[in-house]
Design brief:
The complex is a heterodimer of chains A (about 200) and B (about 110). Chain A is mainly alpha-helical and about 200 residues long. Chain A has two domains: about 10-135, no CATH class; about 145-200, Helix Hairpins. Chain A contains eleven helices and three strands. Chain A has helices spanning about 10, 15-25, 35-40, 55-80, 100-105, 110-115, 120, 125-135, 145-150, 160-175, 185-200, and strands spanning about 85, 90-95, 135-140. Chain A has a two-stranded antiparallel sheet. The longest helix of chain A has 24 residues, at about 55-80. Chain A is elongated and about 60 Å long. In chain A, about 30% of the residues are buried. Chain B has one domain (about 5-110). In chain B, the strands form two sheets. A four-stranded mixed sheet of chain B has the order 2-1-5-6. In chain B, strands 3-4 form a two-stranded antiparallel sheet. In chain B, helix 1 (about 25-40) crosses helix 3 (about 75-85) and helix 2 (about 55-70) packs antiparallel against helix 3. The longest helix of chain B has 18 residues, at about 55-70. Chain B is globular, with a radius of gyration of 14 Å. Classes of the chains: A mainly alpha (about 200), B alpha+beta (about 110).
């Protein structure tokens, strides 16, 4: 899978590692992979995610590159005794270095070897990724385009994700049958929101 | 046992996940890592749970699934669904309701 970048240095330039570490330092409580990717994307990285909806292979490439960089940074931080990076599915966090714990963190992670080998990205086919991210689950949305889904929520582009989420929550609460709303209207709101969730990164 | 795990919000199925999907080895390692993280303790319904049991882990992961669904985080949706079908094979529906008290999340398991 090398449609986006062919050159390893271009995939992850040195400055990327500095920006990644800076993001981790700015969030001592940790942050999710999704939030971290969005912050890095806002800094100009992962430009291949700008198409909406992001394609499964683009999402996978971003995931792999981020984890590759995180595990490299984790190793460097360990050898330079600078800090410990916890790389977890729910939270990614940089914390103070403690010698015994650092060795344990770096040595026992089964995923590190996979993500540190860039060949694993190149050898993953588009079909593999689609099987993982796309075919596994399907949503029940009756909207076939973003404009129609936004319209159901009373919105039009340009609109940001926070506005969509807040509008959805407000409408879902307002139209809930427990509060006198109609279930058909609530179904339409949920379907519109489900479509918008799948169509954005 | 149903072959699909459903996420139902306010009475509507918003996504389904095929529990028969075969996971590659690396993906299984990812689920192990989720367990490893949760073994260090989780926070659920504003309570710290130092040693969560399977069901508490299921609720914690389902909360992350709901958050991922709201954010459109496809990777996390896949990972959390995969975890739930693997670790709670009797789970058929994750039911979410926006009630007057806030969000109510329930895991519906097959009767034994």
């Amino acid at each position: 899978m090398s449609d986006y970048y062919d050159n390893t240095a271009e995939r992850l330039p040195q400055i990327f590692y500095r920006d990644l570490e800076l993001q981790l330092k700015q969030h001592p409580e940790g942050l999710s992979e999704y939030t971290l990717l969005k912050k890095l994307k806002a800094l100009g990285y992962f430009g291949f995610l700008s198409n909406r909806p992001a394609k499964p292979d683009a999402l996978y490439m971003a995931h792999f590159l981020l984890f590759h960089a995180l595990y490299r940074l984790q190793k460097n931080n360990y050898y330079e005794k600078k800090g410990i990076i916890d790389i977890g599915p729910f939270n990614i966090r940089l914390r103070d270095y403690q010698s015994g714990e650092a060795a344990l963190t770096v040595s026992k992670d089964n995923l590190a070897a996979y993500y540190l080998d860039m060949a694993n990205l190149d050898n993953t086919s588009r079909a593999d990724v689609e099987a993982l991210l796309d075919a596994f689950w399907r949503e029940y949305a009756r909207f076939d385009n973003r404009e129609a889904a936004l319209s159901e929520l009373g919105l039009v582009d340009p609109v940001d994700e926070l506005t969509i989420k807040e509008t959805y929550r407000r409408l879902a609460m307002h139209h809930h049958p427990d509060r006198g709303g109609e279930s058909k209207r609530l179904q339409a709101i949920n379907a519109a929101y489900a479509h918008l969730c799948k169509s954005r990164f | 046992m149903k072959s699909l795990l459903s996420l139902k919000i306010d009475g509507n199925i918003v996504l389904e996940f095929d529990r028969n999907t075969r996971l590659p080895g690396r993906q299984r390692d990812f689920l192990d890592k989720m367990d490893e993280d949760m073994s260090r303790g989780i926070r659920l319904s504003e309570k710290n749970i130092p040693e969560p049991d399977d069901l508490q882990r299921g609720y914690y992961v389902a909360m992350h699934l709901l958050q991922a669904f709201e954010e459109g985080d496809q990777g996390m949706i896949t990972a959390t669904c995969a975890y739930l079908v693997q670790r709670l094979p009797g789970l058929n529906t994750i039911q979410v309701d926006h009630g007057s008290q806030g969000i109510n999340l329930r895991l519906n398991l097959d009767q034994k």
